[in-house]
Amino acid sequence: MNIEKIKPIPKTIEKKIRALDQQWYDQVSHVRFFSYLVIQKGELVKITVAVRNHKKSWYFKQVAVHGLHSEKCYVKDMEYNYYGMGFRVGWYAEGLQNYRRSYETEGWDRADAKYYDPFAPVVNLNVIDKFPALKYSAYKLFRGRDILSYLRLYEQYPQEEYLLKLGLGRYWDSKTILQRAAKDKAFCKWLARNREKLGNEKFYYVSTVMKAYTTGKELDEIQNFEQKKKMLYHDEYMKIVRKYFKAKDLLKLFAYTEKQQISLSHYRDYMIACDYLKLDMTEEKNLLPHDFTLWHDRRIEEYRILKAADEARAEQERAERMAQMEAERNEKDLARAIQHNERYFNFVRIAEKYRGLQQTYGAFVIILASEPADLVREGIALHHCVGHMNYNEKFAYEQSLIFFLRKADAPDVPFFTMEYSIRQKKILQCYGNENTGPNDEIKSYLNKIWLPYANKTIQKIKIAA
Prior knowledge:
With 465 residues, the protein is of the alpha+beta class. The protein has 18 helices and twelve strands. The longest helix is centred in the middle third of the chain and has 37 residues.
């Protein structure tokens, strides 16, 4: 790839870019990107073009050049903005700025190919047909962000074409699946038989796909096991469950939760209560009670009473210390008091930090808890455990957040309580009165409307921090 041989944007390409830009981004002022393909000394080259509007005028220019077989790319007047969630482009040469920005240069700079490659739809994919080795790569079915990455992998694993034609494009970059398909015809036939399920909205882990093939078990059965296993081993608050269930016991645990129709989070809360009560969990009747709901409610109530008594004693001790501190009125005792109340202040601080995740949409309102007392009131109103099972600690230490889902016409009436993981960016659980699950309308709202909004907002909060 020779940057000196890169020609100005052809008029036909400019026309295609302008047409797509007007179709997709009419009246949009921010910078967007398109790309087109050329052939240079037998190599397929992708040229990225930045586009923007300014005072009713349309501006465009080449900002990056990537070659199919080149480890380096060329970039001009563009850099990645770590704080702005994307790439930014300078327009000094076009007269849209009063000064040249630090990343703007008169010529092209070399950089690693994996960088400076923004999402840019290709306007002339048919150029690929001029390469006999790539002509049948099913590139027209590719829906990923980087056509060159797809073609590079295709040259190693022609089986990519088979995956895309089966409608399994989501697995295009899985070398595990591609390698198996390259040497195992039975696996290819198995993929074909299961393509409808593998290609639907539900995504199956690659490990699930391989285990389903090698064991003959159903995909959903293995996926359910893998999801629960991941939750068990990656959630810090599942430590109490891992204490009593090793890898060889997981099937027994998962079978029990399915039979009792409970979640792992529900079972974890029961285990925390039992541990606090110092029950012997080596006994089967305590570990896996026959009637989980009955014993869950009983142990939670015993836990609540005992913890309330312990907290009352702790509060009395705290009050005595506070009285002593007030009498002494020195900085050391004041610092000690602030440290004692750190969890409360952290809770309030975290609540303020993530206040932007609240939402009013249609028939629903999402409200973030403001202080630990909110959790207690919510738990009492809906008869569940949110006020007594360390959720305030998880909130205060920025591990998960507690939201209250309310009806828009009754925003002050408790309806459903939801736990959201900041690290995993997903909803861990959502329960209403007496631990009832949400209906399809609520699930649809939470998963399709609120969750994408929350994850996008979380990213902005992290960048701002």
